[in-house]
Structure formats: C-alpha cells, structure tokens
Amino acid sequence: MRVVGIVVMTRRSPLGTSAILVAAALTAGPAVADDFKLTYTFTFGSVLEADVTGTLQDDGDTVIVSAVENARLDGASGPALPFVTSLADLVDQTDLNPPVLSLSGFGNDISACSDDTCVLDFITFDGVKQFLGSPGIYTSASFGNTLSGGANAAEKYDPANYSLKQR
Question: Chain-wide mean pLDDT for the chain?
Fold first, then answer.
C-alpha cells in the first residue's frame, strides 16, 4: 500500500483554526518492473546471459517477464529477441499463461524469440511442457544450441547452472 494523496481542509472555530483531515487515499501501488541478469551455463561449457525486465511477484520468487534483451553467448551478442511468451502458450496457441522465470530456478516457462513464430532465433526455458521428460533448455544455433540433434542438442535443464539476479 502507498499513500497517493492527503487532502487537508481547515475551518474556523471559536478557538481558532483547526485542521481537519478529510481523506487519505490509500491504494495498492502499481507493480514496478525490475531489472534482472539471467545466466545459464550449458553442459558444453558456454555461458548464456541476458538482461531481463520483469515484475517480481508477491511470492518473492516468480518474475513475470516483459522483456529479454542483450542476449549473448560467451559474451558475443546474439540477435534481438523482442517477442516474449510462455512456452505453454506458444505450443498450445493460447494466451493464458504469462512468461515466467524464477529466482529459485524452478517452474520457468518462457520463450524469448526474434518473432512470433519462435523458429529462427530463440531461448526457451521449459519447466512446464517438459519435452525432454524433465525441464529443459532449448536455444537456436545463434545461442549455442540446436534442436536438430547436433553436437549441442537441447539439454536437460539443471537449476544449479541457472541464475536470475535482481540488479
């Protein structure tokens, strides 16, 4: 809760001027977006990093993501990823689930992509659909991984290799 405004009125009384507090408007403040640094170290040794904008939820763990920017692999910038959605919504062709990451590393559900098809360039943390039978991380070749079964095929997600830190 935060104080939005206080209105004070005065009136004359036989004893002088007294202030009468008319109203103090209290409202729940709008959620404020925060900046985070995302880091994931792949089993093949490369490090994926990105700047994330999102809103930390009341549970103190879940971040609803609004933007993923400056994605890079081993320090080299990758393509822009302006389209952000949940993998569940992308696969199910719905708009029911917000894209989320977590501070703990559990329950991530996000695809950050170069466009709304999420085919060419993307980073996906799959903690919900679990295409690999367990949580996974999938990225396009631009970010060191490939879904085509190459040397760096999509891998099972390891929360020990993940970090999301508030800046």
Answer: 80
